[in-house]
Amino acid sequence: MVRYAQLLEQRYKGRIDADADDFLGFIVDGGKHMTNLIHDLLAFSRTSRQLEPLKPLPAREAVAQALRNLEMVLDDAGAEVIVGDLPLVIADQTHLVSLFQNLIGNGLKYRAPDRKPVLSIKAERMSFDIWRFAVADNGIGIEPQYHEKIFEIFQRLDPGSNHEGTGIGLTMCRRIVHRFGGTIWVNSEPGTGTTFFFTLKDGSLEA
Ligand code: ADP
Q1: pTM for the full model?
Q2: pLDDT over 90 for what percent of the chain?
Q3: Is the beta carbon of 150 within 6 A of some atom in ligand 1?
Q4: Does any ligand 1 atom lie closer than 6 A to the CB of residue 110?
Q5: Nearest to 201 by CA among 95, 63, 51, 55
């Protein structure tokens, strides 16, 4: 569908009239959004089905995989990524990668236009069996009144902006963290940056 709309756009853009060009643009964008929506909804539904068992896993490797999956966007944005020492945690590999990938991906997507994106991924021990992770960016930030709302499904703060998205990512992150027995929250200063925190159980005790 999208492909045919794109073909129509390529072949007839500028040959009908300005309204037709706009309409074709809307069809192509709408079609792409629908494809992304289906993709994200399927990923979201997989967070409650096809569950792999939870076991001790090195968070460092999940982050490395997430960074490999995002390599092209990271390079394009000229981003700097700082990764601290990361522990063994209780999780499943697919969803642990997806959690980091969503948060790091958002850090890049919502970057400030006037500075180089700098992201950091760190973990700190909170208690003898709980780690608190922090995924931080120096992007556009989020106003305090939206700090809870962004975790609701389909909630996007600026849907008209150039940032493509479906509003499913953070809902999925919260669902993943809850399944691993942790909590997730955000701290952010508009104009300065955002840090997502989440807790996970220490995996070294069961390793
Ligand atoms: P999506 O990115 O697909 O819109 P998410 O559920 O991942 O959906 O995020 C919801 C909304 O929260 C985004 O639309 C954006 O407005 C805001 N947001 C998420 N992460 C960040 C971030 N790191 N910096 C600024 N805003 C963010």
Answers
A1: 0.88
A2: 69
A3: yes
A4: yes
A5: 55
What torsion, rounded to 10 degrees, do the Cα atoms 175, 176, 179, 180 define?
-140
Mutate to test the pocket of ligand 1, among 44, 156, 186, 198 (most ligand atoms within 8 A of CB): 156
- Pocket lining: 165 vs ligand 1, CB cutoff 6 Å: yes
Separation of CA 98 from chain center: 8
Do the Cβ atoms of 121 and 104 come closer than 8 Å?
yes
Average pLDDT of the segment spanning 190-200: 97
* Rounded-to-integer distance, Cα 41 and Cα 5, Å: 23
Token couple for 168: 């499913």
107 contact partners, CB below 8 Å, separation of at least 6? 117, 119, 135, 136, 137, 139, 194
Question: Rounded to a whole number, what is the distance in angstroms from the first to the last CA of the chain?
Answer: 49
DSSP line for 117-178: -EEEEEEEEEETTEEEEEEEE-SS---GGGTTGGGSTT--S-TTSS----S-HHHHHHHHHH
Please write the tens of the pLDDT for every residue from 37-86.
888 888 888 887 778 899 999 999 999 999 999 999 999 999 999 999 99
pLDDT in tens, 1-17: 788 888 998 999 898 89
